[in-house]
């Protein structure tokens, strides 16, 4: 292998082994249809003003909504939300079928029973190759019931103690 060529298999394996917290981003598309996806890239950018970031591929089914909307909801999941994470990472047409969400005051889809949810305004979308970094200024939210962490590791949603 050429030392200048990246080893994509090693890159992919490295990030599969890198455990990350699980969040779900929700929004509405231009027709008002709810969209959402799981994100393991959620990070705090600043406390004052409160800013959060997440990354996503522009090929993702939710990208057209995120590219055109002004507002999103960010949900942080705990261990009891494992099934919710599976739903929100599954078939995009089935993500909002069922009673696991409700419409929030701002019209955004809010997932029920999560450890925390926040709403905010997208203030920046930075294009990086075929992906985007999205910056959100947080404007409100609620703290839900405490729970053990839910992490994404080796393509599974697990509690830290489940990793063997």
Structure description:
It contains three helices and twelve strands. It has about 160 residues and is mostly beta strands. It has a single domain, classed as Electron Transport, Fmn-binding Protein, Chain A (Pnp Oxidase, Chain A, Roll), CATH 2.30.110.10. The strands form three sheets. The chain has a seven-stranded antiparallel sheet. Strands 1-11-12 form a three-stranded antiparallel sheet, with helices on one face. A hairpin with a 2-residue loop joins strand 9 and strand 10.
Mean pLDDT: 93
Beta strand count: 12
Strand order, sheet with most strands: 3-2-6-9-10-5-4
Point out poorly predicted stretches. none
List keywords for this structure.
single chain, 164 residues, mainly beta, Pnp Oxidase, Chain A, 14% helix, globular
Write the layout of secondary structure elements.
Layout: H1 8-17, E1 20-21, E2 23-28, E3 34-39, E4 43-46, E5 51-57, H2 63-68, E6 71-76, H3 82-88, E7 101-103, E8 109-111, E9 116-128, E10 131-143, E11 151-153, E12 156-158
Antiparallel strand pairs: 1-11, 2-3, 2-6, 4-5, 5-10, 6-9, 7-8, 9-10, 11-12
